[in-house]
Specification:
TIM Barrel; binds phosphoenolpyruvate; elongated; binds manganese (II) ion; alpha/beta; 15 strands
Amino acid sequence: MIVVMEKNATEAQIAHMAQRVQEMGLKSHVIRGIERTVIAAIGDKRGGERESLESGPGVAEVVPILAPYKVASREVKPDPTQIQVLGFRAGAGLVGIMAGPCSVENEEQIIASARAVKAAGATALRGGAFKPRTSPYSFQGMKEDGLKLLALARQETGLAVVTEVMSTEEVGLVAKYADILQIGARNMQNYRLLEAVGNSGKVVLLKRGPSATIEEFLLAAEYILNEGNPNVMLCERGIRTFESHTRFTLPLATVPFLHRKTHLPVIVDPSHGTGHSYLVPDMAVASVAAGADGLIIEVHPNPEKALSDGYQSLDFPQFNDTLQRCAKVAQAIGKTLS
Ligand code: PEP
Ligand code: MN
């Protein structure tokens, strides 16, 4: 249910109603919109809650939430959510740019990448330290040493750091170094991990599972939001289809569709979405045109020598050129790269 407060409801009335919701054994999420504040009341109902809440002070109405996901839905929060961490901002007119290598490989590689992506206009540095590789014989990442190098790169450049966390046990460790925790596509439905990042206090970048429906994707986001963490970004990174000319199939209609359903920022990953560096620039530009609130792009000083995903990584000049094109499209649709 959504407890919609009157436009002129006082802070005391809002706090009182949030308390009432909790006394009913429901979770309360206070969501402050531009127009008015609503309180989402989530959990198993025993009956009679709606009538009881409706009579509360400062309450305009109590309405059921129709979508299966609650806190993520536009019904609960009509205004778009904007994420901000260090200089990185995404959502509500700002297109946040995250870029960097697939994996952190060594100090020289990550520092050079950080400087180059920053100079081109990125505000967050990506780089995997814990890598979910299809084969156990592939490079698995530098783990904590990689996290330390990411923190060093942040210190050098001021970029926010986004990196993947693969297991619940490692959430504390990764959160110690990163600004944005990435949940990889393979872990989208690892519910205990979603709850753990929901409790981490960090911004979360949730990647869509390659075979997940949009509803499953939004319900996964709901696990994080339900822990009281409102800072979630959704990332379309391509799905598995019968098509084989690209590594995955990148459905850009996901972007406007998600915007209808949720207030959360929608990010696109054209690198994993296509799997070919020559397709990345055009799909990055197309993502911005489709309304994406951000991009995450793999960039490497020397893609040919990359320890992972070199074939889909841009070199520095290609990334620079891509962002310039993205900036023009963003401007044409009334947005700004951030
Ligand atoms: C990555 O970002 O390098 C990655 C492994 O992404 P995904 O989880 O989308 O495959
Ligand atoms: Mn990768």
